[in-house]
Amino acid sequence: MTTTDHNKPNIVFIMSDDQGAWAMGCAGNPEVRTPNLDRLASTGTRFENFFCASPVCSPARASVLTGRIPSQHGVLDWIRSGNVNKQDLSSEMKDHSEFRDEKHAIDYLAGQKTYTEVLNENGYDCALSGKWHLGNSLTPQKGFSHWYTIGRGGCHYYSPDIVENGEIRIEKEYLTDLITKDALNVLDHHKEKDNPLYLSVHYTAPHAPWGRDEHPANIYDSYEACSFTSVPEGEKLPWYKNTIPQMKGQKRKEILQGYFAAITAMDQGIGEIIDKIEEMGIRENTLLIFMSDNGMSMGHHGIWGKGNGTVPQNMYDTAVKVPAIMSQPGHIPQGVVRDELLSQYDMMPTLLEYVGLTSPDTKKLPGTSFAPLLHGEEMEQRDNVVVFDEYGPVRMIRGKRWKYVHRYPYGPHELYDLENDPTEAHNLIDDPGKKDLIADMKSRLDQWYLQYADPERDGAKEGVTGSGQLGLAGIASKGEQVYAQD
Length: 486
Description:
Elements: E1 10-16, H1 35-42, E2 45-47, E3 50-51, H2 57-66, H3 70-73, H4 91-94, H5 115-121, E4 125-130, E5 144-150, E6 161-164, E7 167-170, H6 175-189, E8 197-202, H7 217-221, E9 241-242, H8 249-279, E10 286-292, E11 297-298, E12 304-305, E13 310-311, H9 317-320, E14 321-322, E15 324-327, E16 336-338, E17 342-343, H10 347-354, H11 371-374, E18 387-391, E19 394-398, E20 402-407, E21 414-417, H12 435-452, H13 481-484
Parallel strand pairs: 1-8, 1-10, 2-16, 3-17, 4-5, 4-8
Antiparallel strand pairs: 2-15, 3-14, 5-6, 6-7, 9-13, 10-15, 11-12, 18-19, 19-20, 20-21
Helix pairs in contact: 1-8, 6-8
């Protein structure tokens, strides 16, 4: 039954794209300029050990919305096809190179309850401003009534394929500004309504491309004198093959200028949104969340990219650790940094508990609500093994000290002592003294997936390469046979 509670807080969930947890001033980076994210952290709680459910965008976003791991919801790679029905596009869009892989729209999360649906059923107006990238992008879904998004996933910043009112058009304005402008309009139009608002502001920044012509010249040029010493140039391990060439010298500097410029431009938009909420007098009644979908290595470990920046895929902390800040003055402790190890699949139970609602399928969901931390309370931490991650046949289990990465079926595998080797420079997998530790972590990893993975969507059985998902995973893909006949 749908109910309305006028006392429930508004929720504004801002998500960036491919931003490592290291890429904020408030996280200790002295070079990247993020005054508004720093401002948000000073008025809320920052979680310095927050992990994505998968180090690539679509699986991570699906886990945030559903509370399920990728081997439950079946989105195992970025959505390469299934975004639109190609026959319904205008002749201009049909011939556009960006839609060459498209055939039929697919609802990748069909039949899977999201927290936005629960919010909508309980009186929230739900609005999306920005990236969706979970299939069938022309159709509002999952409780959203306002739907301003992008036809595919990534795009050029000054020629984005914008979806509005069921149609796609190519815009010429800077995409970050377009998303900000739409979010501000949503806030404006909600002024006269009594029911609470849920607003997803999903930027594509700082995702590639990073060229000088992709971002505002004044912001790009403002990083001209930056030395980028906050981004270490590493050497990749011998079994990794880069999917993005290693950048050196002037090329490295130009790419990092673009990456930092994308973050700073987005930060300006975030500042406008915070200012608007304050001007409306609803700051104390609005839960503001900032998070990235996954992390990013920008030369760290010799890698440019996220989990799919290498073959085989990597699980470095730079790829799997994401920025996470939550703020509601008067409710959430201000200027606090928590070190508990948390995951994106904890978000659904946390958000719903925070607003007094219950998660569906609680026993089937792997996450745990950390709402007590948002109220300034302590809570029992997980056991030694506290964070799990996956990307197709590559899986990670991590505690505060030890991280174990297992690659099905043949490896190579990795073990890191994060207490003594925080940059993950020394793989201890062949250390004879670690055999019992490795066996224990592997056992815990296996038990986790036996408990939560759906055998029909189990990523260990899928040959995920990072080149994009074209249809539904596993046995569910049999329902997509008709698509292959076109």
